[in-house]
Amino acid sequence: xxxxxxxxxxxxxxxxxxxxxxxxxxxxxxxxxxxxxxxxxxxxxxxxxxxxxxxxxxxxxxxxxxxxxxxxxxxxxxxxxxxxxxxxxxxxxxxxxxxxxxxxxxxxxxxxxxxxxxxxxxxxxxxxxxxxxxxxxxxxxxxxxxxxxxxxxxxxxxxxxxxxxxxxxxxxxxxxxxxxxxxxxxxxxxxxxxxxxxxxxxxxxxxxxxxxxxxxxxxxxxxxxxxxxxxxxxxxxxxxxxxxxxxxxxxxxxxxxxxxxxxxxxxxxxxxxxxxxxxxxxxxxxxxxxxxxxxxxxxxxxxxxxxxxx
Length: 310
Ligand code: KMH
Ligand code: ZN
Prior knowledge:
It is built from eleven helices and twelve strands.
C-alpha cells in the first residue's frame, strides 16, 4: 500500500435523489463545479454517474458524461473514475458505452450480480417527492437485481481494457467478491496495482460494521498481498465511521454524496466539497498525508489525462 492516502469523491451517484438533499448536483455546471471544488479540497479521484439536468434522474447519456468530463478536465487535473454500475434499469451495453467512447483513466468494475436495495429509504420521504421518477426508481430495486455477470466482468477485464487503456476501481460489496477478483488475477486478467473499493453498508452486501472492515482487509491481504491498493466507502449514516476505520487500518478513502448525504448526525451535507474537507481534516489529525492527482496516478499506474478521449 502506498503511504499517501488517495481520496476519492463520488459526487452524484444513483443512490440518492433530489428530494433527499438539495445539494445533490443536477446540471452539468453543478457537477463540474462540485468536482473541481472537491478536487481542490483534496480528492485526487472524482467518481461520476450522470443525471438528466431537468429532473435529476440517472441517465447513461454519453453526451452528458462528456460535458462533465471535459468541464472537469478544463479546470483541474483530477482523475475521473466513470461508473459502469450506472443505475438500476440500465442495460450493461448502456452502462459500458461511456467507457468505450470517453476512454477514461479509471472505470468501476462491480464484482458480482446482487440485490442492491434502495427501497428502504422510501418511507422517510413519503408524500414529499419532488419528481415523479424518484419513488418508483427506488422501489424498482426491490425486484431488479444489480447485474454484473462473470461474462460482463471478463469482457471488461479483456476487450474493454485493451480497447480503452482504462484501469479499474474494483467494487467489492462482500468478501466473496474478493475471491472472484482473485480468480481473475490468478488467470492473469488483472495486473497489479489492484485498486479495490470495499463497499460497506449496501442492503444486499456486507454491513457497515468495523469487524467487517477488518475481515475484508484480512481477506484482501491474504489474497493479494502487496499487489493491492484498497480504499473504503461507507453507505449511509455510518459513512464517516467506516471510512475513518479504514483509514486507520491503512486504507485509501472514498466520500461523496453518492454514498452518504450527511455531514454529521442530523445535518445534511452542503456539498461534496464539505465531505472531502471533513475527511481530509480527519486524515490530517491521524497524521496521514493526502495524495495529489499526480501521486495517485503513479500509485495506480494510470495512463494520464493526455490519453483520454474527452
Ligand atoms: N454506489 C456505490 C456503493 C459504480 O458506480 O459502479 C457503488 C458504485 C458502483 O459506485
Ligand atoms: Zn458509483
